[in-house]
Structures are given as C-alpha cells and as structure tokens.
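Can't paste images in this forum, so I'm doing it all in text. The chain is below; anyone willing to post the predicted structure tokens underneath?
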Amino acid sequence: MSFKIVFIGLLTLVGFPILGYWLLYGVEINHLDEFLQWDERLNPIAIGYGLMFGFSYAFLALLFMNAPIFDSLGNRMEHLIKQLKLTVVKGLFLSVCAGVGEELLFRASVQPYLGIWITSILFVAIHGYLNPWNWKFSLYGIIILPFIILLSYGYERFGLWFAIMAHTAYDAVLFTSIVNNKDEPL
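Text version of the structure:
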C-alpha cells in the first residue's frame, strides 16, 4: 500500500478520534470506553441496520451521480479518487478508516454540541460538496446531505456503531464503483 494511502487512512483513523476525544474530555484518559461507546448499543442489530442503510443509500446515490448533468463536471470526486490509484483493497481500507475516524469526530464529538443539522451540513461542506461557486458540484452535497442527516438520526437512535457501519458501507460501495469504472478518463 502506498505511503499516501496509509498516511491518509491513519490520519483519519487515529487523528480524528484523538481530536474528537480531546474536544469532549481534554487530556483525561479515563473516558475511553464511554467515547467508543462499548456498551449495550454495540449490538448486531445496530450494526446490521447500519450496513443495510449505508449499502442501500450508496447504490441510490450512484444512480443519481450517473445522471447526465454530472458528465460535464470538471472536478468530480472520481478524479480525486482515481489520482490516488486506488485498488479495491485500498478503497476498503480508506472506507473503514473514514467510517471509524470521521464518525468518532463528527457524531460522537461535534454533534452533541452543534446538533444534527449543523453537524451534517458542516460534514458535507468540509468534504467540499457544498460549493456556492459551482452549483453542479453542490449537487453531490444535495445527494449526500440526506444520507448524513439520516445517519445522524440513526446515531441518536442506534449508537455510534450504526453510524460507523453505515459510513463504511457507503464509502466502500462508492470507492469500489469508482475503482472498477476504468473506462472513465481522468
């Protein structure tokens, strides 16, 4: 695996949770179990619902993202991912890293302070999908925002591991689709 992929993955997997933990608890180390939510919400039902939701929404999003309106978009997400020269294994690695790291930061750490809606909009905006100067690129944000909002409500109902599994499944489908679509030029 290339250094860049490992660096991006580990930064997300380790760095984001450290930042999130620090935002919630400072330097106290005795809240780790609480932060990771190793409690009754770590159950197969929540994990299964998360996987089903993530996979289902990803396939729905792919249908929308294949609409002709996106054909003329010059800086598509696929271009960025293809520049990393991902394989399916590298894509799955990044999916797990993003699912765990980003959900620990945004759902477990930021959402309790900013609420579901602001955190969801912030999440999509930080990923660059809400661009007031490029309305076509913002269409990605409009497709992804309902997923993030529903994922956030699912976090409230089913817990952190629902959100992690949904996010991981969603990214895995999109990365795999992009990696396997070799016909599209950069």
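The radius of gyration is 16 Å. Residues 3-180 form one domain.
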